[in-house]
Amino acid sequence: MSLPTTEDRDPQSIGLSKKSDEEVLSLLLGRQVEALNAAARAIPQISRAALALLRAAQDNRKIGYAGAGSAGLTALADCLELPGTFGFPPERMRILFAGGAENLLHMTGSYEDSDEAGASDFQMSGLGEGDILIGVSASGSTPYTLGTFRAAKASKTETIAIANNPGTPLLKEADHPIFLETPAEIVAGSTRLGAASAQKAALNMISTLVALRLGHAVRGHMVNLVADNEKLRQRAQRILRDLTDCSPEIAATTLEKADGRVKIAVLMLREGLDVTAAENALILHNGNLRAFL
Fold this sequence. Notes:
One of its GO terms (molecular function) is carbohydrate derivative binding. This protein is of the alpha/beta class.
């Protein structure tokens, strides 16, 4: 019987016990690199998905992520990272994870078997018409994630699917399917390896491209961050000094006046504005700092 790629066994996994540690690790890394190449082959699909996410972000719509198991963890990571890295409003972010928060410490696989649970979680998420949902499933047939997508379709929520098997239900259900053609895993079915690496790469590519188009990443800096801890305060000061050529002292005091908001601080220094005027200027340009640089 022919198995899906994500369940098949890599022929190179035979005889690993006879290889040295270095040989095994080199093989593991090599297969991960091959898996990452799947993201390169999917760039046209990734580009279309990013455009859809950009439209939703520009319209101030909600952005949801759905998944189960390791694919769900990959989706969860992207969802949680976007507010801190690129300043996506956390109140507009949603995560639909099979089993919920209680299932994170000791994941139980049975939660992913219920499409009804997926549909129920979607209904409780508040996602609806004009919003967007990103579903991640290595197999492309996880019932929970399919349940979220079918509910999304009924609610006119746009969908992006990332899967590692071709022609699977999730890809067929999606408005914007992304097929990542990763090789069989060294440990058959362990999709936290190559498949997850490719998923993470695709998600990184989508969100970073959107952040660039929104002006949240400028000249290699995450200018939409809000400095609310010491590490971010130091980073924000470096960004401000690079973009305005100010002194460390001025960077620190200006950021304090701007409540840690880098974009506002940049406009205060480059344009000679106070906080309110900087806020209004940024609003006029849809939050994009590039017009002033």
